[in-house]
Here is the input.
Amino acid sequence: MTEKKDSIEVHAEPSRRQTESEAYTPLVDVYEEADGTTVLEVEVPGALPDKVDVRVEKGVLTITADGRLPEMGSDYTTTFRGFEGGEYYRAFALSDEIDRERIESSLSNGLLVVRLPRAAAAQTRKIEIRQG
Amino acid sequence: MQRELERLMGRGLFGESRQIGGGVYPAVNVLNGPDEILVQCEVPGVVKGDLDVSITAETLVIKGVKKGPKDEDELKYQRRERGVGDFSRTIVLPDRVDADRVQADIDAGILTISLPKSEAAKPRQIPVT
Here is the structure.
């Protein structure tokens, strides 16, 4: 099995899906890299690339994913259930410093990674002091 | 059925499991079918090479490590929910299985282990004469 990463398209139009009130809130790590890029790592086990949706609208990043497990049928009894697959939903407010045009997203091993680069204008710029 | 459940819970069906992020990890499902037992394990972000699945008689052990991003020291975390580290789960299976035919596959962060039952464990119809 290849360990390739699938790119997930980031949409700019508003979502047509209703708020997933029955959806799980996926676990997420948020960190900032040295150059100011913010990275989200979202756990969406069971979700294949065509079932993941990443959208940006009016400064809100919305992630939805369908990680439902395939039906096993009535021949199978459940000895123990520790998790249910299901729908995932989580939304984040984006700071103005993020360059919305360059948001990238990829999915691998049930982990969605969203990269939010900092806009050039928002980069910390060191100001040289001229000798005068 | 009730007694079966009590036996499983009382005996610590799931043995030791290391905790990551305050919970028991990884979450598992154990399904019992006519010809096989199916164990599903939720391991998002864990790669195949970091998983170790082994079986001894009726005991299945799933071990592995969930790694964080490289060069973690250069990162500034704003939120940390996922957890990283070693994990291990021990599952006592409800029926006897054929160890030679056990298969494990991983897809989209879900590890699925198929354990075909040994002939003696399959239901057999007994005619009433």
